[in-house]
Protein 1
Amino acid sequence: MKTKRYITLIATASILMLAGCNSLEQPPVNQFTDANYWTAERAQYMINTAYSQMYSASRMWEDESMSDNVINQRSTNNGGRLLQTGQANSDTDLFNNEWDSMYAGIKSCHTFLDNVQNIQMDANLLKRNIAEVQFIRCYLYFRLATLYGDVPYYEQDITSSVALETGKTPKNEIISAIRAKLEEIIPDLPSRDQLPKAENGRITKGAAVMLLARTYLYENDWTNVEKYTRMLIDEQSTYGTYSLFNSYRGLFEEANEYNQEVILDRSYIPNLNTWDQIQDMIPLSRNGRVSDRVPVQALVDSYLTLNGRAIDEAGSGYRADDPYKDRDPRLTATIIYDGYDWDANVNNWFEGKGKIQINPATSTTEDKYTGPNANTSATGYYIRKWYSPQDKGSASSGLNIIMMRYADVLLMYAEALNEQNKFDASAWDKTIKAIRQRAGFTNSYALDFPSGKSQAELREIIRNERRVELAIEGLRFFDIKRWDIGAKVFSGEVKGAWFTDKIGIVLKHVPERNYQWAIPQSEIDLNPNLKPQNPGY
Amino acid sequence: MPFLEGFLAIAFLLSNPVQTFASEPSAPSDIPAPQVPVKGTVVDINGEPLIGVGVLVKGTNTGAVTGLDGSFTVNASPDDILVFSSVGFVELELPASADLSRVVLEEDSELLDEVIVIGYGTTTRKSATGSVEAVRTELLENRPVANVTQALQGAAANVVIQRKSFNPNGESTNFNIRGISTTTDNTPLFVIDGLIADQSAFNNLNPNDIENLSVLKDAGTAAIYGSRSANGVILVTTKKGHKGDRSKVRFNALAGYNVPQFLFHATHGYENAVLTNLALTNSGNAPKFSQDQIRDLAANIDKENWLYYQLYEPALQQDYSASITGGSEKTSYMLSLGYHDQDSNYKSNPKFGAQRYNMRANITTEIGRLTITGIMAYTRNNQTQTTGSSIEINASRTPNYYYYKFKSDDGRYLVNDVVNDFSSLGQLESGSFNKYANNFLTASVNAEFKIIDGLKLRGLVGTDIIGNTRFTRNMPQVYWSSEEATVPRTVDDADYRTGNWNEDILRSNLQLLLDYNKTFGRHTVTGLVGATNESYTRTANEITKNYVDHELGIGTSKTTEANNTTGSTSMDTMSKTSITSILGRLGYNFDDRYYGEFSFRYDGSSKFAPKKRWGFFPSFAAGWRISQENFMENYRVNVGDLKLRGSWGILGNQSVGNYDRFTTYSVSGTSYGFDNTAVTTAGFKYGNEELTWEKTSTANVGIDAGFFKNSLKVTFDYFYKYTWDILMQPKTPGVLGTSMPRSNYGAMENRGWEITLNYNFKAGSTNHLINFNLADSKNRLVKFPGKEEILHGEELWVIRKEGLQWNAFYGYKYDGLFQSYEEIENSALPTGLTVHPGDVKRKDMNNDGVIDEQDRTVLGHAFPRFTFGLNYSFMWKGFDLSVFFQGVGKREQMIRGELVEPFHENYSYVIYKHQLNYWSPVNTGAYYPRLAAQGSDSDVNNWSKDWGTDLFIFDMKYIRLKNLAVGYTLPQKATRKIGMEKCRIYVNGQDLFTLCPTSFVDPETTEMGHNMNNNSGNSARNYPNIRYFGLGLDIEF
């Protein structure tokens, strides 16, 4: 019978249909879940994530924006600019973004540390991995405490309810805890010399010692600064062999990454993992997009003349009508100015386009200064340091960002000795002279120990040397703070090169605000236990 | 289009007049009455013959169908009653003995028996108990629109469609039914021929293929779609042939031009320079232009040619479709082809634009008690578009100085000191392109088996197969800083990149339904029960090659070097979901007077953990057709129909990520490296095992009333929706280091109403049809984590606060401009800012003498309210006219950036003509503040994002003449001679004119997505509006 046949057909079809029903249990296939993630191999991935969250090019540039070396002419809401002009408040984006991203890094560290205990892996590797992650964690907490003062501090992973309630831990307790942890992990870390090439960029004993030295430096604890910098200078067989790289300019080139001066850097990979801030700091004629973060005249003025004298010092030979001639060669390696000889100072990119012409009286190029509200630089200066010839100033630079280098160790050491009134010719030769020689000074006035100078005069020399050697590396702000020179350096109108107009940005020092960030208002709104807000906000 | 010709040839053959409906074999011999052939002709009120009218001898299976001249012959005895019926006409009964030489059928204006498609079935207008609106397909056909969504604008009450861009390659619309009921996802559900689809499938339809488009708005109608129905359902059925219909071939053609309309204009070069100087000197800065330069600009005013205008040209749009429908005794069919081609208005190389090809075959056949319908539709979309970005803005922010040029005389692309790294025209003409192709195949087989009278078993197997591809080719763009330059300033896309991206989506759908429908005397019972499963699988893959051969675009040895070839495979992108459901409906109606209905759906979704997986969504609806009561007989006869109806139910929304219930770890290979070699990193995202559906309880009451003997029909509905368990992300402090997953937390209510009027009347030989709809909705946030949240959205904020509308604009209240220093001294000011007369004054909301964040207030809402559509059609003899207006009665929108602020942020260097009403000592009554240098205190006060006022809020109510068509249908007598049943030619225009208080942007411009979340971006930087003018042709054989 026909009907029967149909019914059989439909019944069969229905059974097939229901059997063919797709399962309602569909876990993701291109992501891991808690059920299958944690293995020895994949635990490494979490460490790598933590590395990527420790520091970044954007953090370096933001830090630099807070200093008196540069201004952000275009982005009026830039956190650094708001701090420079005394306009920052507790809603300033920078404070919030940095807070979130540092705690995100700490989260990765804690997630690793909490889960790695249950994984079977090589004991030595485990110890080293834990030491690396602890270092990153210490680095982030040190930065948090340095910027914000007292902050919530945890030793292990937390839940959201804990996060919503915990109050602040005093800064000094955090710093003590960091120091203890760093001392503890040094033995578990390899020295630079023990790193196979493939591990270039990993955390070493030297980095841990350097971080310890920095924690003391930021408190002006000179005995300990001396102690830890000495470990790096005098005990290189234990803590790694470091020395100045032979070329100052070359330090910031991709070809010389991981050289003997570098203690730790934030790794970038050409074409793959890149940063792009430089395109808004370089001349338009060299692939610049628009000018934003540009050097100011005060930084240019801090470079000595080739004979070792400040430009306003008698006998410096400084000529206001030819101001960039015979200056500290680091000026040319750091800043681009009117008449800059590109072909001679950048490795053959844009060859044939000639010099950088900025002065409006003579320039016929797109770099011609056209006033403060333009796509060209408001100060008449551009940034040279970190311009990677390989990347041609494009939106994707693979150049590593150096976080710690040996010249810094030498400068810290010099400063620590001078502050303890122990600075002498031999210490000078080891530090300032070596650094200046590497920079390209040959004049004996520049290289020889300036005998007869007072401690205060030497202090100025060392501080200025530190400023120019480490300019545009994100460190200046922290020096301004520990030297308490904010009132001096953040005052009055920002000035550009002699041919520029009034820029209209006025620097202002508000002591509490310039030196310490506000706890983000949104955090306090969520967790009243974070009160009181930092002073001044 | 040779294939069209072939198709037409076949169509001609098929349409040759053949007998298409044989009379049934004569009845068995036990029927006594003598039968004689009865002849006659059926015509409409205009006397035109009606073809295909069924003529049935009442109470028998004997009948006939009228032929081409309206004539019929049927065997009947003189006592018999003949029933004349045809879709769209009032059924007529006449004795066989009557004079049948001119049977006049009247068009059915009552539409009470109009069939309305509802979920898993159909109903009639008179018995509908829920809020379901059937869209008139006339509004969808023969419109120069890119897709059905565009055509639907204004066509149905509370179906709110905002067209955010006119770029054929950047179509972007917000689609909402009855407003905003949740914060997560307010997209309606789309169901096409019974298959759960999505908006892109909907837009893939050939508008001329649509037979029915129903909008299910309330729980009574939508609950049968359960967990995905909370935002309403758009239900589409495509055209089918009818059993016994003669073959009809239709051909429609439409061609016209889209002409760009520029809504804003730059000032003359010299004016721009003078005002630039004014802004600078107002703030104590040095002027930028010397008098010589200004004189030079003024002297060359006739050479000005603003870059922005140079990017566009009028562009051709063409639409063709052809279809053939018909049927024999057992089988009916509909075959159609469609072609849509809209060129981009960009001047570009290659030519940009979008094409769509449609092909559809709907075939139904009966095998005994089994009816099988097969549907197969294929759509191909091609798009070619720019790889460039910011095309509009980079041209429009460059001042109208005569020396700014896109190209040098020898054809090199120039950059300037405003846009110095690339040129909009250079990008468009570089030879670079993105080519998208989309293949969309939908196929389903629906079998219906009649078990006993009234009881049917239905099974459906359906699938959508979607393949999307993109091919990208980048060609270098060489830019020169001046006509004299000898070395290029920069070369973009020098890496000769090519790339392919492919996406494969499979949606499968299985349904098994038991359907019961039986009338016992005055009782009618309907029942439906069934089970369905749908699953969705998506994979995608991508490959990118750099440094390919310059000419051919194929790989070279350099392409094989490290990182020059990258990509992802299907495994990287795989996702899969599945949903199984049981559904049912039980309906009862007494005497077409009292109606009651219950429906439900029980859904289980793979998106939720087992214990939270299943959700139950019931609904109840009732109707009372008062006019059918005996005491209403007078009313029914003299006034018309009157029905009260109401429904209540719970609908769901499962707008949650496919895997949100899992804590997931995703790995990446490009986030870090050692020694310049990448290492794998892992990120993680917390999941929430407790996730479950959002629920929306929906109540609806409505009245359907007819007046003037049902020639005017009015429908009014009021609804209230309450949504709870809305998925919201709890706010977590940054200290946690990550975010918490969303959980079922929030609640929102939404209420509104809609009214539709249909008025159909004849006056003399003219026929008039008026359709009008007006609707409103308004939401209120009821429960929100932390009670409120204020988010900075560019220059203003949006506030989410319990008791307020979702994402209201929030900021400082503009209180005019300061007129004197004395006034400034006596006014509350933002801290730290020095202001001058002509600067913006803010209202001190809390009167504490200082302007701070406490003074911010609600400034408006971006969701359209009082949306309306008005269509008027007029027919006289062969002439027809159709006018379609559409608009919004109330809406505020934030617009930011250079179209609001002159010389915006040192980014735009232009002041536009609509910005000239700025304050100056001689124009103290101005609306806009005085010009000031960027970054100055005045500028920060007037325009900065930290101090945003409602100067950024614009009134976006509007009314638009959406479509105007004037046509003429050739007399049938004439067309018949060449074998044509119908031939209509018409002219039409679209978006012809708009009234809006804000002139410089399109009133549909919005930075808000369909959930009223700020999608950021800058909506003022849009492709220009386009206005369409064209010709059309409808032919039927």
Note: The first strand of chain A starts at residue 32 and ends at 33.
Protein 2
Amino acid sequence: MIVTNAKYYKSLLVDGTKGTKNTEIQCVIDGVNSVVPISTDNDDYNEIMRLVDAGELTIADAD
Amino acid sequence: MSTLKVDTLQHRDGTEYILSERNKLINGDFMVCQRGLSFTSTDSANNDDTYNLDRWYLLSDGNDIVDVTQETSTVPTNGLSAIALDVETANKKFGIAQIIENRNCVDLIGNEVTLSFKAKVSATTNLDNVKCAIVAWSGTADTVTSDIISAWGSEGTDPTLITNATYENTPANLNLTTSYATYTTTATIDTANAKNVVVFIWSDVTTTSTGEFLYITDVQLEQGPSNSIFERKSIEQQIANCRRYYQRYEQLGTSYSTVGASDRSYVNAGVVGTGYNNTTTSSRFFNTRTAPLRKGVPTISYSQLSDFTIVASSTRTPTAINSAASNYNNDVHWSTFDVTYSGAMTISHFAWIYIDTDGGFIAYSSEL
């Protein structure tokens, strides 16, 4: 899996205001625009974290 | 009480009687291909360790080693489709694999199983050593490292597998020919703490030329010491089975009618979400899945933002698509996503989003 352009994102809350914590990672996976929820129940998230731990990927901070 | 032991059950005319739900593999005849019909280096679609035809992913010694297509011409008698692997980078090993979910293979563990499939090559000049393997995964259940290859090794030497992946059979050269034939291997899944089973079929040679093809279809893994006739499930059942792992929604247009018998089987719906404007510059959409996903926190993938149009108090083109999963208890049956745009619209207004470009899509993946 090749991950590029990874960036954290803070979802909007139910009332439409910006959330305060990172909720997902926006990135390109194997050439496809992707949104990966921050959840260990998501295998792509687990793989992204493995790449981060291995020093092979950096995730930019959320705006 | 007595026990009846038979090798096969037959109809009166001598043809084999097929017991259902024997095949633990999904899309073994490669009929379902929601992601597309052809996977090339464009958009990195034929990268190593990348899913292509539903439930199947490519394993190769590097990227762009082979192009992958759904083959509908060179197929066995009474078949409609196969997977075709077309060498793009010479002298590299390549293959396909499928991971079976723990709940679907738990009954195989500790038992004898048989893998069977039909295959052929375009020429035996170089592709003269194709092998197959039944691999046990003994790590955490359903947390399989899909790239099970640690090192591909030299020609004729089985690839070295990663930690927690173990060959259960002794892979051997199947000596494929230029005609379809059925190949089988049998093994007992006896690795301690096995949780998942992976089927792996590959070319084990390092002397290949571009334009050489390996064709595979009717792949079946079943319990027992021998193979039975391929269980060809109904297309509706196969689609539902595939959509447990990946669901793709595309434009309502001409695409569906052009795919013919290959039946890519994605949802050709156009409208991919209905919801409301949760701010003046964003809308929140809800999507009810066409089949339950394996997990409720899928990865969302999508084509270009310009493929989408939002309709509410005005129309807008998205500037971003985001998961709204953290706000709701999304589950396997439905999900939400937020779309932001430039140009204010009326807050709380009903909104819907559709895809208006051929080839545009949004998909939810919960692959293993």
Note: The longest strand of chain B covers residues 213-223.
